Structures
1.
Amino acid sequence: MSGSAFDSAIYRGLFTHPDLARLFTDSAEIRAMLLVEGALAQVQGRLGLIPETAAAAIHRAAMEASIDPAALTAETGRNGVPIPALVAAFRAEIGAPEHAQFLHWGATSQDIVDTALMLRMRRALEIMETDCRRLLKGLAALARDHAETPMAARTYGQYAAPSTFGAVAAGWGAPLLRHLDRLAELRPRVLCVSLSGAAGTGSAFGPDAPAIRAGLAEALGLSDSGASWHAARDRIVELGGWMAAAAGLTAKMGRDMERLCQSGIGGLRLGAGGGSSTMPQKQNPVGPSVLMALAPYAAAQAQVLTAALSPAEQRDGGAWFAEWLSFSPLVLAAGRALALAAELSEIAEPVPEALAAALDDPLGLIDAEAWSFALAERMPRQEAQGAVKDLCREAQATGANLSDLVARDHPGVALSPANRFGQAPADARAFAEAVDALPAGR
Amino acid sequence: MSGSAFDSAIYRGLFTHPDLARLFTDSAEIRAMLLVEGALAQVQGRLGLIPETAAAAIHRAAMEASIDPAALTAETGRNGVPIPALVAAFRAEIGAPEHAQFLHWGATSQDIVDTALMLRMRRALEIMETDCRRLLKGLAALARDHAETPMAARTYGQYAAPSTFGAVAAGWGAPLLRHLDRLAELRPRVLCVSLSGAAGTGSAFGPDAPAIRAGLAEALGLSDSGASWHAARDRIVELGGWMAAAAGLTAKMGRDMERLCQSGIGGLRLGAGGGSSTMPQKQNPVGPSVLMALAPYAAAQAQVLTAALSPAEQRDGGAWFAEWLSFSPLVLAAGRALALAAELSEIAEPVPEALAAALDDPLGLIDAEAWSFALAERMPRQEAQGAVKDLCREAQATGANLSDLVARDHPGVALSPANRFGQAPADARAFAEAVDALPAGR
Amino acid sequence: MSGSAFDSAIYRGLFTHPDLARLFTDSAEIRAMLLVEGALAQVQGRLGLIPETAAAAIHRAAMEASIDPAALTAETGRNGVPIPALVAAFRAEIGAPEHAQFLHWGATSQDIVDTALMLRMRRALEIMETDCRRLLKGLAALARDHAETPMAARTYGQYAAPSTFGAVAAGWGAPLLRHLDRLAELRPRVLCVSLSGAAGTGSAFGPDAPAIRAGLAEALGLSDSGASWHAARDRIVELGGWMAAAAGLTAKMGRDMERLCQSGIGGLRLGAGGGSSTMPQKQNPVGPSVLMALAPYAAAQAQVLTAALSPAEQRDGGAWFAEWLSFSPLVLAAGRALALAAELSEIAEPVPEALAAALDDPLGLIDAEAWSFALAERMPRQEAQGAVKDLCREAQATGANLSDLVARDHPGVALSPANRFGQAPADARAFAEAVDALPAGR
Amino acid sequence: MSGSAFDSAIYRGLFTHPDLARLFTDSAEIRAMLLVEGALAQVQGRLGLIPETAAAAIHRAAMEASIDPAALTAETGRNGVPIPALVAAFRAEIGAPEHAQFLHWGATSQDIVDTALMLRMRRALEIMETDCRRLLKGLAALARDHAETPMAARTYGQYAAPSTFGAVAAGWGAPLLRHLDRLAELRPRVLCVSLSGAAGTGSAFGPDAPAIRAGLAEALGLSDSGASWHAARDRIVELGGWMAAAAGLTAKMGRDMERLCQSGIGGLRLGAGGGSSTMPQKQNPVGPSVLMALAPYAAAQAQVLTAALSPAEQRDGGAWFAEWLSFSPLVLAAGRALALAAELSEIAEPVPEALAAALDDPLGLIDAEAWSFALAERMPRQEAQGAVKDLCREAQATGANLSDLVARDHPGVALSPANRFGQAPADARAFAEAVDALPAGR
């Protein structure tokens, strides 16, 4: 089937991150849920709450069992949750009823589903972090190599003042450094087990409920959630926000790349890709376009999560189902965005001559600001600005170059590279160094 | 794979409309695109623009060809669009190069992709209309059967004044009647071919471009779009808005059903479904919860379409790809919502005693408004309101019934059914009649 | 205060439509609510349900009364709705209690608030339609005047094939013609009174409830809603969708204008505006940027309305309040977008030389598609495409012009204007004629 | 004017936080922008970049100046930014041109606007933190006082199993504790100056650009941003996400309160407020409804910010203007939500008898889960579940109480409070202690 582009054989080359897609298959979900059931039994066995032999049998079976997703369809459709069907199928697979009876002991569906999601998200965040770091490396190389490659900064699409390509690339990357900080902060808060039973009180676990939860967390390498989070979904929203913003930040790079690639601008080349079915000459910037598509898509899915932040009471099917619809697509979208952005950062080649053309504009107007500050060393600033404004008008009217006009009226005033490029080269290099200095990830 | 719940074997019983899902598979998409290519060749043959034998060969092959979606993955990933790969694969399948060369003659990828989408949407809207009409019939039956089944209208969750269950059910349905009107209006405007070539000018079709487009529209049973809509996406947004609102309207019913089903309220029964893995007594209102989940999900996908309403220039990969990501999931969500709502309308059974309980409140406060208007026939209205307010306070303080207090202070004043239920029964019956009177759909 | 940019003295020159802003002031809202109360009394007097003298007194007072919005603050904060405070203040103003007691007879707050909103929306839609028609006229003039002004169509920002500026301008306008159709369809469905009392049953109006509602509709020039729409908000969502899409369609024009205005492209001039505080040479395309900002803002507000489409039960404070927060800002955003777009359509001046430059590209690659179809008249199409692809590569490698290379290898093959521009001039003129042929609006 | 409910005299009692509203007036914005200009001059004076006397004059004037917002309307409308007009007006006010010329030295509009926003956000976050802590205190009191007040946990609106009101209140508060952690993390990252000039390179500041920026940060009590963030808007998005989630978390409480307040449930009282214009008996839960309205509204505004996360190039009017439209309304919405939630936490009074009624259900089904675990101490779990399921059916069929049936079939099996309430009392108390242990805020 392919109700979604991520699941489509036609489109998966465009939109799908293979490693992440593998984490969000039915079988990976079942595997994760079984792992949680297995670890739960193991912990309960260790604490003496269920027989150790049963625990061992369940734990072992959980790693070996193979349950057909299609076997869960009908009952999940009736119940709204896959766990009753999964538990029944798993029990059948275990065989020994004297052991199998201790499966899912005291837990509720949401405990298993949410914990299994977190297990997969731990891995998904690792993948995303890896791609984010690869992207940062790609950008750091661009920033360092082109720290002094001149180009025109643009505001509202207009030439504003000189900058360098390296500074622009650093500008794409700087927020991603902060985004790694955010990731480090959210991990321990967010990646946690859920284990609080049907009413969120853990009553069916008996007085050892907190110990079981702590043990499960340890066994699975997740945090202990403390109290129930069946209806406290801030963690899901925090994850969603991080992923949507990650996609958005790559779309910023994508948008700038697409604009630099425009015919008539030509400041960037992206290598092959994007032929047209009828236009032999076309090389479309497909990758940047994909980034620009993934970002609003990811943002919309995150919005669904935010809307589900106020579920009713102690469990709310509507809010929870809304998460199911939007969460995995969000992971896939954000993950693809980071990986694709990393690729683009590695194949992007600025075209220095084309970039420089803006600064060599025959009228020289892009240096107007720089001239007005250079002149302001000799005269009051307003007067300097007024003088430059007048000379700009004269340049536009006569076709003369602004620097010639300044030289005529204000001999001896000159522009230094620092006047023109300011902190751009230094900012580019500082970014590259910050990337180099990143501590190793997980 | 199952990056989306709609494609998941585990969850499809909950979220997926089988007929619509079948329309949004890779193979259905390929079939639709081939149909468009076949019809295009046929029209061009008829107009003498390509050889009739080639046209016939292409047209025939288009109905028989079977192309493996996986064969398109790699090139689609590179090109951003599936058509170059599809055309190549189809050409290979046709075999005869003297015919195959006239395939896709003058068209651009977007012509084929968009027209193929519209072909499937024509069918999808038929399915949705059928479900919508089934839902209306279910609601009409409830409205008629319970036109006089008393219940308390609630505002802000509080008992407001007496109404009837039939009027409430009619209230769920009335906007859907208007939504069928909207559907009828949008169909001819929206369901149209796209055929304007790479630049939207149809230049590769030669002077017959408008005739080819008109012919294609006729052959496929779609409207003629007039000028290019590669970058004029209002039709997509109109479709998206209709579908998102359809889902939202069913969620209104879902929310009310969930609230009526609440333990302690118990005004509605929905039959079986929704057992809990640990709570033997639980019958969860799974269906209404699914409706409440599909609506925000659908709205978010429609939002992506709205954001893609301002693509750049004559074709914009980013905006178009964003449509691809969100459009089919929106169709699947809205379609499932309508079908599930129809099912729920058929199995919903109001519980008259439970509904009436609110009106039999020992204090009788729900009739306060009715009493104040009854009293206002004898005294100035403000005075009447004041008197009733005082009696309400007395009832709350003493536990006396408001009607007894009114009888004590204002003997002879009485409430008629009309006083209590107003237009509720008539509104319920009028809705049922309007549904009966619906002209047959397509 | 200025919690919103629309209300800010600083920003209103940028974002605010003065006529629409006037409709969405506190005093205009109070005036509209009083008009509804006055018309209701008048109708009830005419039907003999309240004394004619009281009706006349209320009706007259409703037109003359002046109620200080600040007098409603405290009680509205407590009650959640402004009507109790308004009715009290209005009663005090009327003075004569024997008349004033018949004010607001049988109505509930939502009847008044919603009907008053519809009254203002009737006027707001007139204003928006006027601006939309003005925008269409501006675009029609551009389309006609520049039907044959050559420019490069761009896909993914790349030169795709030749088109004309007139066709591009027509492309901005064509969806707006459909949007006027939508407006005509929605008006009678949406612009209606609300009059169904506290429980939506109209019980407090007695058996004449439908007649009163019909009378009120007639008196106010609105449609009769039929049954209660306190909790059936599809009309609000339809209005919201129309307005958000209107803003989105203007943003399409805005985006294209901004891109045409880019330094280094220079295909469009927008007159004065947008000086920089430090860059004397800058002329920013402020107007197009405002359009690009209003569209996502409007879409987000419409999204709030869609989320409020499933209110609970017969009235739901939460859903209704969410409408209050987002509806007027949406009107103001969409209205400003249409008016500003109209202005821009009138001051936009294409720069033919700059536009043509793309077509005069030394390599001549933009005509690749046209050449491949011209060649295909002599040889199989695939062969023609292959030949042109090879020549394109040669042109890129050697700097030769594609047309020279074609002439060398395929003497006698030539491009006609129709080959190059296709339907572009005809589409541009057809759009202009369609605008001329628009029936007069309301 | 009142294009927004926050600015409306009618509605401000419902929606507006007075202290936050005061921060988001035109005059507060002007004051903040002048403070930034004043601090900039002071720093530049101290570094010897402009004359110290000029610096002192500007700094002093910045604190005293009073500039009429309306004086900026026209030029802001033209330029798109308020700074040129503000600088001109401020210069005029300073009077001495020999000093005034050094105003805004080297800065660009966005430096001033963004830094002034951050100045106000520092204060706004303090206000929100104060309200959040007040809310936590209110919830802690509820949690502690009602740690053992029995109520039914509900899932899908159905009685699930016993819990306590204190645990439910703790469940509202626990995510807010995490939200304070997030706030502490984001403050130093987000609350920073902007000072990078027209092209983001700080070229007009000369080689001291970093020192000026650091000095400005210190003078204003904000962080040093490092490189330019004109087009790196992750900080804005992080702020927006925090605020939208804050509103969403209060809406969770609001939704639960509204449901507990339902007629027929009556588990919570909220004191006075919410009278109906026609229903004397109604006490609407207005406050909870406002929370449910603010959350989707806030989420939509945050969505606009996320969409603006990929601005084009070095400054992008469209993306920035979109922030202007949505940011202050988001602050006002989130701030009101926190303050109103705090009020509600202080006036909320659970109704123990009504809450307990669910647990005293004649059939005793809510204890089914507890019984099945109690029985499982004697027999295999599946057998125990099966036995309880059978007894539940018998109870429903015969009207007998489940505990009597268990006693009949399994004498000696008993439920302890721990069986029934599990960790609920402990969770409630642990939350209250965590609130008590909060370190003092800023």
Note: Strands of chain C lie at 150-155, 158-164, 268-269, 349-350.
2.
Amino acid sequence: MTIRNQEQALGSPGTAMLDLVSRLYPICRSITGDGVRETLEILSEWIPLEVHEVPTGTEVFDWSVPREWNIREAWIEDPHGERVVDFADHNLHVVGYSVPVREKMPLEKLRPHLHSLPDKPGVIPYRTSYYKETWGFCLPHETLQSLEDGTYEVCIDSTLEAGSLTYGECLLPGESPEEVLISCHVCHPSLANDNLSGMAVAAFLARRLQAGPHRLSYRFLFIPGTIGSITWLALNEARASDIVHGLVLTCLGDPGPMTYKRSRRGDALVDRAASHVLADSGAEDRVIDFFPYGYDERQYCSPGFNLPVGCLMRSQHGTFPEYHTSADNVDFLDRDALEDSLRNTWRILQVLERNAVYLNRNPKCEPALGKRGLYGETGGMRRGEFDELALLWVLNQSDGEHDLLSIAERAGVKFETIAAAAGALAEAGLLGPAGNR
Amino acid sequence: MTIRNQEQALGSPGTAMLDLVSRLYPICRSITGDGVRETLEILSEWIPLEVHEVPTGTEVFDWSVPREWNIREAWIEDPHGERVVDFADHNLHVVGYSVPVREKMPLEKLRPHLHSLPDKPGVIPYRTSYYKETWGFCLPHETLQSLEDGTYEVCIDSTLEAGSLTYGECLLPGESPEEVLISCHVCHPSLANDNLSGMAVAAFLARRLQAGPHRLSYRFLFIPGTIGSITWLALNEARASDIVHGLVLTCLGDPGPMTYKRSRRGDALVDRAASHVLADSGAEDRVIDFFPYGYDERQYCSPGFNLPVGCLMRSQHGTFPEYHTSADNVDFLDRDALEDSLRNTWRILQVLERNAVYLNRNPKCEPALGKRGLYGETGGMRRGEFDELALLWVLNQSDGEHDLLSIAERAGVKFETIAAAAGALAEAGLLGPAGNR
Amino acid sequence: MTIRNQEQALGSPGTAMLDLVSRLYPICRSITGDGVRETLEILSEWIPLEVHEVPTGTEVFDWSVPREWNIREAWIEDPHGERVVDFADHNLHVVGYSVPVREKMPLEKLRPHLHSLPDKPGVIPYRTSYYKETWGFCLPHETLQSLEDGTYEVCIDSTLEAGSLTYGECLLPGESPEEVLISCHVCHPSLANDNLSGMAVAAFLARRLQAGPHRLSYRFLFIPGTIGSITWLALNEARASDIVHGLVLTCLGDPGPMTYKRSRRGDALVDRAASHVLADSGAEDRVIDFFPYGYDERQYCSPGFNLPVGCLMRSQHGTFPEYHTSADNVDFLDRDALEDSLRNTWRILQVLERNAVYLNRNPKCEPALGKRGLYGETGGMRRGEFDELALLWVLNQSDGEHDLLSIAERAGVKFETIAAAAGALAEAGLLGPAGNR
């Protein structure tokens, strides 16, 4: 296993992320099993991943790690012996965690095991049954309707036995032990936006962070949804307090505008940073309040942890018609959207990295900027000389109470501009540190 | 005196309330006197009322209980000896608290004692003069204009002498000594919406509360406006601190939508509960801020008490043309409106009864709802499965800081739904008490 | 020097202010020099001014007082010996603080010293160069374009040498040592709105304050912009803490509606008072947030002082086309606008003077207003009896927490009405003092 060269990752990340998604797409993932292992192995070509195996039966808070599920083949043969549904064609055809079955039965007995979407007759739905032992097939409604009466043979060659839950972790230590958590779920089979897109953006973020120094530490988790985050939190409870910011990444490849779902706290720095970056990108009205449904932010934001973890998406789960169907495939993804998602996520992380509270060392009246080469030299200037106004905002607000992001918000300018102004003032000795936030 | 059977009260409360109003309508009430006593006696057929008599001259804060006023007959005879105005026809014809008079006088001398509404020429206005000794008659403007010159004979056979101020009180003790105050004024003569409607709704609320157990204690006051609430507060100053919620009920029978006027505090639980219930009933924009005018909330919300008492109405006093005229009669009332008022008031009381702060006993990550029969069993579900989302909201927010009403508000669902979800979770041992609010 | 008679000042202040502006207009002012002295001498005819001289080189925080600049003549002669630009025609023709020059040079060498506005070809721009030694002329763009090639003679007979910075101060002591700061800049040459208008309004405010008693003390500063306020703050640092409210006055004569720029605090009493007065005058949407650019509020609101000083204007600097050009002349000013500015500023000061927190001495229930002659005597009144409602608002809110301005805001009525009601209640012994705010 070699780490692919960095130029490729940074050069055209949209294409590279789309290639990664295409390669991961055919693999049959679930909350446990070999599909997750294969996925993490491919991700390891890009970033250094530590792969954890947590044995079946391990108690994790109110839950226990389930048995491991693996599947080799599954099909339905019609009365003429023709395979009308075949797992080999599409892994969504089998209800996740189906118990093994090999049996002949009339259509009416088979029927309750068949799932389709009458309102979307051409696509295969996605169904799982993790905690109730059953089996089933998913198929296009038009296929279901074409089935004639008679005796069908069904085969699901799966195993559900003691094994482990597998997840990947990548810690990139920074100057500070304070951590940013980036979490994405790796339990969905052939579904591209949900959530191969999140995995691809997370992997490319990690590569970019590795390319240079960073103040904060970053912990990337590639975990099965719900049970994976519960497992990680249960096994790493003491570490959770190091997490000062976090993002769940999902549905980042569709052509819709960005959406940010706030953490339960609502006003954490990550919430403010994401709102600022998205407002700037013209998607302001897609910042939504926390609600206790969705992805692993449900666990990170449970009241016993209440971590400042939001969820970054483009289209929200359940709001695009391709969601949880075979239509959520590689063709549904947009290269530019993936690249835009990466860029916005990066900008959010940069706010977290660079935000700080400064103290104006010359707080009584404005300092003479001219003699330090920081001010235009001809009087009678108008408002609108942008950089000078940024300098004045930073000086005026740096009383130890306002961080750079709040100054940017009050001034109505980009964080980057305010941060650059603060840098120049600090260099000139006019600003001193008052602690990071 | 017998308590009427309960079925009648609960069976068709709109009709029953309208019957009660019709029976009380002809009685000549004022802030003191036999009309109030007769009114309380009729109310006693429905609910257990303790009738208090406070002697004339009793000092009550900055005021003293006035002399008692009673009236037997009153009329004006025109120059031909015809009775052009007669108290026997309508008790609004006499200015309340008129001193006795029996005199012949020319029209020009009588004129200053005659009150009419030029812009509503067909109705009799309502006038009183409690604190300045005078006498007067009220009549339709068209009658006034038809009076010819000449000598008129006027008679008011009233008495204004030492007696007492009468009010009714009904305390329904609950598990808790904390009290809900329900107050309505009983001092208006033949005026139906203002305030026989409030008296009827209060009486039927009390009956309904008697029909089952309740956590809170309820104190119903049937009192003359202003001087009555001042008297009660002065004589019961120590008890006022037990009042944790309160409603003044008035103008609850007209066909307009509900209005809630907040307490002086503005954010008391009764304010939030009423806003929630009214928003739900489609009258959201009729929640108005407190102002120091209106009914007895003026006294309950005076700064020395500042009780959390709001005022529940349909049309606000002064905003409907029938207000304080003979047009505010039984025909003006709407049976369905009375019933809707009772239903909404009841729902507000239910929020007060059931609101509580819980503690999630399993605060770290979500509990496994499935193994407790509280969750759907097939994965891949979408947002919209309402009851599960309510369970998740209650679990997520029950950190000891949020009461059920605030959870309902944040979740955007009915209080009843959130309270039901909390009940199920408490039964499953997942929620514990953190105190009531 | 005599103080002009007061009647003139109070009788027709618009005309009188316009006369004062006209007299001051031709004087060539700068941040130092004889023009400022002459200006202060004329103002001394109206109000008692203490004139201060601060020597060149005095250290004032991060700055030092610059050399004094004076100018006698300046002109450009074209190749034919004709004066194409002459300081004697308009003092904007010379860049402020130009060093002396007397030289012949070809047009191409002169060109970089010539400033014009291509988009406003008929007007002379205003330029200064206080902190970089250079010289220059300002002229209409159409004049610049008409210049033919050849040798030009230029003359600037100025001096830039050790001297002093001059400013005027007028302290009007009140009952309280708490001060209201009224500050305006006196450094602009022939520019009428910016800022002869501010000087005129300040002078007439001072006259009006002298005409009667006032609770607060008032400090008027007539100072050069930026370096003047920095100098005053540096030399009077200990006095700054006495400043409890303040206004920078500028651009108060143009025909646009009033604008108020909040202090850095945003919710200081002066901010609330100005918002209330302007809302009342129909200019509510012109209350804008603080930003660290503009006039001397930049210094007063620097974080080391953070004084509650806002800025009152009509049109904002930079938003009217005449700004900083020869078009900002006496004709641009509007007599009624000047008078309206004076009236609104006066009303703001009256809120500061009269605002107070009272205690209701009869806080339990309403007092009996009738027996004190403060209430209408016939019952059945409707909301709308304005004065009684004002009395009830003051009584209800006077719990020691709410000042009169907040009561006016909550009641939605003019401050003057609430203050009058409070006065009547205090006279009746129903209100007592709880301290001023």
Note: DSSP finds 13 helices and 19 strands in chain C.
